[in-house]
Amino acid sequence: MTFEDATTALGPSVEQYVNLFADGILTIDPSRSFGAPIFVRGAARLTDVRQLLAAGESICIVAAEFGIPVDHLVRVIAVADWLARQP
């Protein structure tokens, strides 16, 4: 699966972004990563993961490197990319 595949895998909304936190996929904690959104599993910063994917790294490789379940990664990237494209 490519970065583009992940961004079209869901029809994201702001509600889905909030659900990423409610479902325990992402967290924001001022004592960890200076409050940047991080994955609960693997503790990778969302920004770092997005940069690797944008540079062409495969979702499976990024998931394995950071210890993030692939389905969590696909959900987060789809929603984060959708949000980034909003005016």
Word description of this protein:
The termini are far apart. The protein has helices spanning 3-8, 14-22, 46-54, 59-66, 70-84, and strands at residues 26-27, 38-39. It is built from five helices and two strands; from the N terminus they run ααββααα. It is mainly α and 87 residues long. It has one domain (3-84). It has a two-stranded antiparallel sheet with strand order 1-2. The chain is globular. Helix content is 54%, strand content 5%. α2 (14-22) packs antiparallel against α5. The longest helix has 15 residues, at 70-84.
- State the order of secondary-structure elements, H for helix, E for strand: HHEEHHH
Main sheet: strands, sense, barrel = 2 strands, antiparallel
Sheet with most strands: strand arrangement: 1-2
Number of strands: 2
Mean pLDDT figure: 80
How many domains comprise the coordinates? 1
Principal-axes shape call: globular
Uncertain segments are: none
Structural Rg: 12 Å
Strand content: under 5%
Helical stretch count?
A: 5
| Computed structural class | mainly alpha
Could you give the distance between the termini? 27 Å
Helix content: 40-55%
Write the layout of secondary structure elements.
Blueprint: H1 3-8, H2 14-22, E1 26-27, E2 38-39, H3 46-54, H4 59-66, H5 70-84
Antiparallel strand pairs: 1-2
